[in-house]
Description:
Chain A is α/β, with parallel strands linked by helices.
Amino acid sequence: MNIVVCVKYVPDATADRKFEDDNTVDRVGVDGLLSELDEYAVEQALQFREKRDGEDIEVTALCVGPEKAVDAVRKALQMGADKGVHVVDDAIAGSDAIATSLVLAKAIEKIGPADLVVCGMASTDAGMSVVPAMLAERLGLPQVTLASVVESQGDQVRVKRDNEGSTEVIGATLPIVLSVTDQSGEARYPSFKGIMAAKKKPLETLALGDLGVDAGEVGLSVAWSQVEDTAARPPRTAGEIVTDEDGSGATALVEFLASKKFI
Amino acid sequence: MSEVLVVVDHADGEVKKPTYELLTIARRLGEPSAVFFGSPDQGDAVAEKVKKYGAAKVYVVDDAQIKGFLVAPKAEALQQLAGQAQPAAILLPSTFENKEVAARLAIKIGSGLITDAVDVAEGGVTTQSVFAGNFTVQAKVTEGTPIITVKPNSAAPEEAEGAGAVEAFAATISDAAKTAQIVASQPRQSTGRPDLTEAAIVVSGGRGTGGNFEPVEGFADSLGAAVGASRAAVDSGWMPHAFQVGQTGKTVSPQLYVANGISGAIQHRAGMQTSKTIVAVNKDPEAPIFELVDFGVVGDLHTVLPAATEQVNARKG
Ligand SMILES: Cc1cc2nc3c(=O)[nH]c(=O)nc-3n(C[C@H](O)[C@H](O)[C@H](O)COP(=O)(O)OP(=O)(O)OC[C@H]3O[C@@H](n4cnc5c(N)ncnc54)[C@H](O)[C@@H]3O)c2cc1C
Ligand SMILES: Nc1ncnc2c1ncn2[C@@H]1O[C@H](COP(=O)(O)O)[C@@H](O)[C@H]1O
């Protein structure tokens, strides 16, 4: 069985994230890492394999991104993925989710028929939560998204998920595209053994040509939406802060709310 | 004038406020047509509601073939409807489900997609708030029919009389779209409080509650507010995940956000930073949440909130 887990390399959310002059996300000047939300995807892919002891299951970590993005694949290998694929090509820079999903879909087809594609619930930079649905559309597979609990038996998968007004159980038959939330269970840390073992695991680098994708189909200039302007939010003007002493805090708070007509 | 398709946000036929916001926004781009996925019996009642906000047409799409499955059937139906109506734009309320519907639709009809807009101006220029609210981005769809998902509270609903002509739309759903089946669904119990994402006031609690949400809930009720929670409070099992505010929970943009016993981590800010007025109660004067506030109280929420609740209730008489 083939499991492909899609891992994105994103700017560290706790660093000062910014944009380039062409309004694309600065992925080079800001420290990056494997998107924390994709660690949950790696974790679920590994658990899927571990729960099926004795079956021949290979987990491939797949990332589309610049040179440095290989770090995201490495981290997934250290956590326990068997094999890595990194698609890197200058033409990809500035791609929107539509083009990214095209490259990912072609790469998944190239890796071999996937029985299970696992994604995070959202990237921590763009945060659109659309790539898994786009992959399902492109690959013609059932989409089972935003799972908080994943169970499987044979080729049947059942997940639990929180929807807007309800909790749902979704059932589907492999192959599927699955996305998992941060409620699905803490991701493991790479062990020392895992880090050492990762160095010997196969890590393939592919360019657009290897996937049969034309450079003219991807990248900033052909994106189906364009960012026209980016601006840092003006800092909030410092507010009034009071220290509570014998009930003075509550009174001041209520007066503030009344002055703003909230009461 | 071209049609603008607006997907109706509703719970079992009960139209929700974001629908009216979307219809208001849609009028900047063309003539709004509401798209109601639901039971055909409810079509007329929905039309009565949405025509008050300018819906010229109301497409009623029977969801008998749709509601038992995830996302894919809705995208197919919208593809077929877009083929017929040739709209100038397609607007959807920004929920996880609708974002996925929009994603599939974008691929199907070869159109660009913008998610989580907080404003859409004439000409289709959108405003988004990104990087945990630290940046504002202006963007535009440049290919195909703009598909835009819009966050709640992005516009004040403005009434405008529309014809509200009901039109049944028969979508053909392929078997391939019916492969992810909703086997069971358990509606969440209503708290009787306003919806978190739509509420004008949100009162939240974090780890600092120590698991006792009574002071938070009491204060929320005195203000007629929704209750929210940080992930720490959710992970501790004190509140259901549906109440989580932040990057992996709900994004809220109310008139007033009151954070109690919440430190203000970047992932929490991502869900509340665009609130108009921010207030915090926290016993640590160094808590990062105080960098955001319009008003802050350094103090113990377990004493400050009950006292404030009492005063608010007294003022209301
Ligand atoms: C990928 C990812 C996604 C995440 N998504 C989210 C998300 O969607 N939403 C979210 O909230 N977090 C999210 N987090 C977690 C986030 O990083 C923080 O850990 C979390 O927000 C902390 O919650 P907290 O502020 O309640 O707890 P803490 O950080 O522990 O803060 C508790 C605060 O309460 C104060 N306090 C304690 N006792 C009292 C008292 N008696 N009275 C008043 N104040 C008191 C303390 O001074 C402290 O400031 C995410 C993290 C990751 C890595
Ligand atoms: N460039 C990428 N490389 C690998 N996986 C990606 C990439 N972009 C998105 N994904 C996957 O799609 C999920 C959702 O991303 P998004 O739609 O951007 O929020 C992520 O959690 C990843 O699993």
